[in-house]
Amino acid sequence: MSSTPQKRAVRKSPAERAAEITEAAREIALEAGLTALTLRNVAARVGVASGLVAHYQPNMDALVSNTFATIVAAETQEVAGLLSLQPGPSERLALLVDTLLDNSRLDVTAIWVEAWTLGRRNETLAASVREQMDAWQKVFQGVVEDGNATGAFNVSDAAAVAWQILGMVDGLNAQALVRWDGVNDRGTHLARAVEGMVGAAPGSVVAKPSG
Amino acid sequence: MSSTPQKRAVRKSPAERAAEITEAAREIALEAGLTALTLRNVAARVGVASGLVAHYQPNMDALVSNTFATIVAAETQEVAGLLSLQPGPSERLALLVDTLLDNSRLDVTAIWVEAWTLGRRNETLAASVREQMDAWQKVFQGVVEDGNATGAFNVSDAAAVAWQILGMVDGLNAQALVRWDGVNDRGTHLARAVEGMVGAAPGSVVAKPSG
DNA sequence: ATCCTTGTTGATCGCACGATCAACAATGCT
DNA sequence: AGCATTGTTGATCGTGCGATCAACAAGGAT
Question: In terms of pTM, does the model score above 0.90?
C-alpha cells in the first residue's frame, strides 16, 4: 500500500538532471499547456523537490520560453525535413499545407496560441516566439522562391507571401483547436487560396487524398 | 497629500452598479487581457470593495466569459453594419477583409487569442467562444452566398469557405499581434487568396487603397 | 576511514487569487 | 423619529505561485 514514499531522489550529474527537467517540462507543456509549467509541477514529474528545479533554472520565464522553443523547433525541423523529399515546388507547397492541417499536431498548435498570449507578459518568451515564427516563414519563403525559379509560381514579394501563408495556416489550426468539427477538406480550400496568392495554375497545388 | 482616501462608495442601484462592473471589466480586458480580470482588479477600478464584485457575479469564470462576449459581439455587429452599405458581394467581401486587417482592432484580436487558450480550462468561456465564432462565420457565409446568387462567386460549400476565410483572417490578425512589422499589403494578398477560394475573377475583390 | 565537494531537500517568505460572510451604514418607508 | 431593507465593507480562509537558503547526505578523492 506504499503509495509513493520515495525517500530521496538518487543523485545524478547536473547534465542528466537538467535533461530530465527539460523533458518533464516538454511533456507537461504538451499535455496541459505552458501555464501548467510550475516549479512544483515539474518537480513532481521528475520526482524531486521543487527547489531543485529552481536550482537548474534562472527563473520560470526562462523555463517556459525554452520549453516553447524546444517543442516548436522540433516541429519545424521535422516538417522541413519532409519537404526535401518532394520533387518540385508545387508538391512541396501542397505537402506543407497538407501536413500542417492534418490535425496531428494540435497539441503544438495549442502551445503556439498560448505563447502568443503569454508573450505579452514574458519578454523572453516573446523573443523566442518571434524567432520561431521567423524560422517557419523562412521555410515557406524557400518553397515560394523555388516556385518562382522554376516558373511554377509568379510572386513578386516571396517574403510577404510566405508570411501570409503562414498566418493562414496558423489561423486555420487555431480554429481547429476550438472547433475541431465543421470543415473537413480544409486542405483543398487552402490549396486553392494559396494558388491564387502564388499565381500558380488552378489545381497545380494538389492536396493529398485523405488516405 | 490625500492620495485616494475615498471613505466609502456611494450607494447605487443594483442595475447601475452591475453596469459599472461590466464596463470596468470591459476596459480592463481590452487594456490588459482577460487574465487581468480579477476580483480585486475590477473592484479597484470601480472604486468598491472586492467583495462587492463577487456579490454581483456568480463566479469569475462567468465574468470573464460575459466580458469576452460583450467585447467580441460588439465588434461583430459593428463590422456587419458596415457591410450593408456596400453595393455588391465583391465589395462586401473586400470591405470585410480590409476592415478586419486594418490593425485598428488588435486589442480585440488579443482577446480572441487569449480566449482560445483560456477556453480549455473555462467551459463557460469555451461555449461563448464557439457561439461568437459561429456569429462571425454567419457573416462571411452570407456574403459568399450573396456572391453565389449574383454569379460573382462560384462556391459549392459556402459554409466551409466562410469558415476558411474566417480562419485566415484570425490567423493574420494574430500574426500582426506578435509581428506588427513585416508585411504591409496584407489586404491585397488575402484578397487574391480569397478570390481563388470563392472562384471570383482575379482583381474583382479589390482592397481599398491605404488612404 | 575520513573529509570535502556538491547534488538535494523542504521549510519558509511574500504575494495574489477566488470565495465567503458577519458587521456596517445609507436609504426610504411608515 | 424610528425602523426595516439592502447595498457595501473588509477581514478572513484556503490555495497556489516563484523564489530563497540553511541544512543535509551521497560519492569520490585522499
Answer: yes
